[in-house]
Amino acid sequence: MAYSEKVMEHYTNPRNVGTLNKDSKSVGTGLVGAPECGDVMRLQIEVDANNVITDAKFKTFGCGSAIASSSLATEWLKGKTIDEALTIDNMDIVEELALPPVKIHCSVLAEDAIKSAINDYRVKNGLEAFELAKSHH
Amino acid sequence: MELPIYLDNNATTPLDPRVLEAMLPYFTSKFGNAASRNHAFGWVAEEGVDYAREQVAKLIGCTEKEIIFTSGATEADNLGIKGVFEMYSEKGNHIITATTEHKAVLDTCKHLEKLGAKVTYLKVKEDGLIDLAELEAAMTPQTILVTIMYGNNEIGVVQPVKEIAAIAHKHGALFFTDATQAVGKIPVDVNADGIDLMAFSAHKMYGPKGVGVLYVRRKNPRVKVTAQMDGGGHERGMRSGTLNVPGIVGLGKACELCRLEMDEEAKRLSALRDKLEASLTTMEESYVNGNTQHRLPHVANISFKYVEGEGLMMAMKDLAVSSGSACTSASLEPSYVLKSLGLSDDLAHSSIRFGLGRFTTEEEVDYAIENTKKAVNHLRDLSPLWEMFKEGIDLSKIEWAEH
């Protein structure tokens, strides 16, 4: 199966690879997936006092589509407020990267990673975690 | 050196130009139907087929009459196993195979289970070899067939076929082997090995696609299979259908070349394979899968821990290799062969198979080594698991969200 140009582009030049200090109060970390399933994403956000995401980083163990999905997610997250970030839907990622049906789970994982990072941030800051829609995969 | 580099010779091999040359006349001037007995066109085609039969027979040490031409190894597996099951149904209904067999064997066995066969799927040891004591223990008076592959397509391990055959015969069963990966690569002799039926195909040994062989023993014992296709009664009634004359001629030539060049080729390829393996396993957390003593000369299957196979192959974009990662299959399940060795799913996801071949050069192997190392390092830089491993976190203690 051939990859879309956008997947190749993100895969070749992944944006925002790296690690934020997970112990910092302003950082939220989402670690989703499982090694046995062949993909694990770690997505981190740094949030300022106005609830704006000022930085986002990822590391992903997975196929090209998983890497591209998380790279794209970090790109989208930067500059968004938490509320705006919560509206990112996995189908937006599918569309942007032209993912084939067999790779939709990569986009789902990216959406889960975003939500899980936001929840980590919220819990750290004394807020209630959002109810995560349970596994569509 | 031309890019990309083909290192997937267990999937298929390029046609040797000498094979092509032998085939060409049989597409045009010598186009006759080998079954046309009443004119020169038929005779010429038949001569080509007869000669090919000799070439094939010589490679595996049998007689020409024991060669049944098929469309490939999958058909030969089907014909051999289903044909024995039907032919010997009065004697019993038990078949023994192994979990690491090719799907052409496993799915044929599953099909027969629906028709009343009892099938034992032997597990393999960590190195990919079957346990002979377990085989012996599985034999029953109803066992009609033991089917164990010669060399494995994913990891290249070579089963102790001689010993397996002896156990099968001791208990009155026939021994079938899918030798698709072995014939032409290592010496295979049906008499020395005690093989009663054997399947293989041309395109894994520098011949054309679409042609294969079922070897069926004629003496000690005389083995029979029930035809699985009805028609003109070709191939001594065991496989109807007009013979693929150019393909068969190509298969014959491919067998001849393998017979003449195998020893030298095997030496050259195993040296290159060892070089590749030695270099790549100097990287941290990389492991060779399968027994490293009893194996084919041209295959290396290596797991690079904490990187995922498909992602890795994307980074090795100038190399044509294959992976046991789930992402490369429609099922999203990692390789059942690697899992049979007891490999954890994450190591199975991290595996790459390098299949060298007749046209692989040392320069290409050197390039592959560098390219693979770069790709592994690049992906480890991207991998959260690698980072956690480096921080000394025990990944098995983490509660992963299954999905």
TrEMBL record, chain A:
What function does this protein fulfil? Answer: A scaffold on which IscS assembles Fe-S clusters. It is likely that Fe-S cluster coordination is flexible as the role of this complex is to build and then hand off Fe-S clusters.
Q: Does the keyword DNA-binding apply?
A: no
Which SUPFAM superfamilies does this UniProt record tie to the protein? Answer: SufE/NifU
Q: Name one Pfam family in it.
A: NifU_N
* Species whose genome carries this gene: Pedobacter frigiditerrae
Q: Which domain of life is it from?
A: Bacteria
Domain NIF system FeS cluster assembly NifU N-terminal, first and last residues per copy: 2-125
Question: What GO biological process term is on the record, naming one?
Answer: iron-sulfur cluster assembly
Q: Which UniProt keywords apply?
A: Iron, Iron-sulfur, Metal-binding
Give the UniProt family note: Belongs to the NifU family.
Q: Work out whether the entry's keyword set contains Iron-sulfur.
A: yes
Any idea which GO molecular function terms this record carries?
iron ion binding; iron-sulfur cluster binding
According to UniProt, the name of this protein is Iron-sulfur cluster assembly scaffold protein IscU
Automatic annotation (TrEMBL), chain B:
What GO terms are given for molecular function?
2 iron, 2 sulfur cluster binding; cysteine desulfurase activity; metal ion binding; pyridoxal phosphate binding
Please give an example of a GO cellular component term from this record: L-cysteine desulfurase complex
Q: Kindly tell me the pathway this chain contributes to.
A: Cofactor biosynthesis; iron-sulfur cluster biosynthesis
The residues covered by the Aminotransferase class V domain are 5-367
Positions of post-translational N6-(pyridoxal phosphate)lysine modification: K204
The alphabetical list of record keywords is: 2Fe-2S, Coiled coil, Cytoplasm, Iron, Iron-sulfur, Metal-binding, Pyridoxal phosphate, Transferase
Q: Which residues are in coiled coils?
A: 259-286
What the entry lists under PANTHER family is as follows: CYSTEINE DESULFURASE (PTHR11601:SF34), CYSTEINE DESULFURYLASE FAMILY MEMBER (PTHR11601)
Record family assignment: Belongs to the class-V pyridoxal-phosphate-dependent aminotransferase family. NifS/IscS subfamily.
Please identify the protein, giving its name as recorded.
Cysteine desulfurase IscS
State the organism named in the record: Pedobacter polaris
